[in-house]
Inverse folding.
């Protein structure tokens, strides 16, 4: 499958202002195939302290690109754990 769905930024902060995130970490994730998968991943990542927004470039049946926008430095293990909790697999480049 070659479906590519660009899902825009979701602001998870209470503020209406666009986040000026200092950290923008791109993760590679396999196993995501639909918009519900995207919602699950976004939900888990959003629970991490400092995370302001999560953008997902879904590649169904392939490697999706998930970018985490944060106000503070991110713990890499926490990112991996969040992906796994959502039910997907983080892979390295
Ligand atoms: Mo629906 Mo996405 O089972 O895995 S959540 S395809």
């Amino acid at each position: 499958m070659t479906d590519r769905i660009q899902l825009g930024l979701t602001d998870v902060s209470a503020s209406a202002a666009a986040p000026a995130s200092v950290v923008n970490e791109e993760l590679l994730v396999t196993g995501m195939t639909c918009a519900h998968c995207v919602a699950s991943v976004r939900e888990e990542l959003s629970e991490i302290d400092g995370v302001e927004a999560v953008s997902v470039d879904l590649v169904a049946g392939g490697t999706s690109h998930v970018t985490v926008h944060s106000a503070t430095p991110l713990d890499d293990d926490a990112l991996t754990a969040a992906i796994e909790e959502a039910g997907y697999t983080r892979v390295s480049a």
